[in-house]
Amino acid sequence: MTSLLKRKASGLSYSPTRPAWKEKPSRLYSGLKVLIVVVVTACIGLPVLVVFATSFADNQQIIQSGGYVLWPTHPNLDAYRTLFSGNLMIRALGVSAFITVVGTAIALFVTILLAYATSRPVLFGRPVVLAVLFTMLFSAGIIPMYLMIKQLGLIDSLWSLILPGALGGFNFVVMRSFFMNIPGELIESARIDGASDWKILWTMVLPLSKAVTAVVGLFYAVGIWNSFFNALLYLNDTAKWPVQVVLRSYVLQGKSMAADQLGVAVHAQPQSLQMAVVVVALVPILLVYPFLQRHFTKGVITGAVKG
Amino acid sequence: MSPTTRQETLETSAPAAEAGPMNARGETASRRRGRASRSKNPAQSKTHAVPFKVRWRRDWQMVLMMVPGVLVMLLFAYIPILGNVIAFQDYQPYLTVFEAPFVGMEKFVGLFDDPAFLDAFRNTMVLAVTQLVLFFPVPIILALVVDSLSPRRIRNVFQSIVYLPHFLSWVLVITFFQEFLGGAGFINNMLKLMGMGSIPFMTDPTTFPLMATIQLVWKDAGWAMIIFLAALSTVDVSLYEAAAADGAGRWRRLWHVTLPALRPVIILLLILRIGDILSVGFEQFILQRDNVGPGAAEVLDTYVYYSGVIGGDWSAGAAAGLAKGVISALLIWGANSLAHKFGEAGLFQKKVG
Taking the first listed entry, what is the main subcellular location of this protein, grouped into a coarse class (chain A) (predicted)? Predict the structure, then answer.
């Protein structure tokens, strides 16, 4: 199943043998290609490697190498032990996990229902679709959004990070164009058998749409996990900060973590501690990335072409 | 039989249902008429002919499914759009939008007397144009390189690597850049160990547009490549073969076969960029505004945030945000119409739904 989907999703095939009409690649040309591939890979891979390596490195090596290491000679978990002995990071992880899981579930629920209902020619279907597309074109802006959240009493509530993003225009378009490709006869036959629209959606349509649901769900999850500005805008209470905001204030702005991790003796170098925070923010994305990558090409192209 | 069961199809293109037997409960003539007129053919699709009550009885479950989404849209898109009315008022936090005094266009006019706004506007344009010129070709070149990579395995691994940064948050991306190029970062540490002075990559306002573009390339060039790759894979190979038979070399084939094949995608993405020209990555700049200084890193979105939410001039912030939103929407609309005029598909198809 997965290999089949993968083949379909990539769809960017090439032929391994060179056709007769194509000239043999010149040495300069191939050399340039290799150079581009190596440089691009290094630009992306090296920072990730350095961050991981430094977070595991011991204090002495960090000091000797001036702050960053490429490979830890005596790898240890001091930085992580320090990080997780204070409640700062644990709390932030809890907040991020909560908004990501609950937010994704709610967003999927809302998006699936709206996308399915508007994928068939029903009452109010067209104006609702146009209304969603319009929100992709024109957004209200930061100030009115802030006032709205305030009016709803959601300032300092984690719901302010979940509810406003529950219907993403792009994800809606991807889901809807998938649902539109489900043959009407299939749905019709279930209806003749007396199934309600709810039942049709949950027992027939959704099992057919596992892949697209997974992709859209992952898009939502990654988006919520990565969101930083909403938390900055709506949350004054630092105890409710998600991981991204913690990352910003303790690593980018260089706030001292030792001061805020009250009662915890800091054994690790501040440098490796900071890198450990980066790793904590990075790892969940790296974990879901293989699943995401398997399907997203298709989703992106559908969304872009069928706007 | 439950009242929701119907023989009439929701799928308009199912003539079988139209010719189907009568509902056991018996139907009114109007419903029959309505059903016969429901068809995918636009000339016949006078759905208004079906009485509302009938359509409601048929579709109420589907309409119910729209409720959560519509509610979210109303609360977090449309009511806030109406909330922009404070741009025309002298809004204060202790007043409601209904009590605030109406001041007309004063706040919009006032923006042009605010040097911070003019700075933000100028920076936005400079950054957008730099990004448009320097970023845009990168994914195309990258796609051409990837498309010609031959061992499949190398190609797949390389694709996985270049897509990855798109999924990292801006906080992470800026952190990586900070750790690498910042004043106490990896490169400057190396320079110091080698006895050289440090280079302020991340904080120099004059080179900031370039730096911002490099960050954008790092994060999104691989992602932007996907769509070009997809377009490349649809090019008819026999075109290349014919061109080669006619004596076209590698570069002539690129120019006369590959690039024309990419044209619709290039136009589509140019439209997207032009429509987006007033919203250069917001998080990217708010994260660096303190280090680089508002003189170079303040953009329209950060201006809205700092003058409105932080500075307390809510109406001025809303005015700047509204002006930006309206101009952006008009830009997308205009660029899209232009694309239609050139015979390209554009961003929004003419017919929606």
Answer: membrane
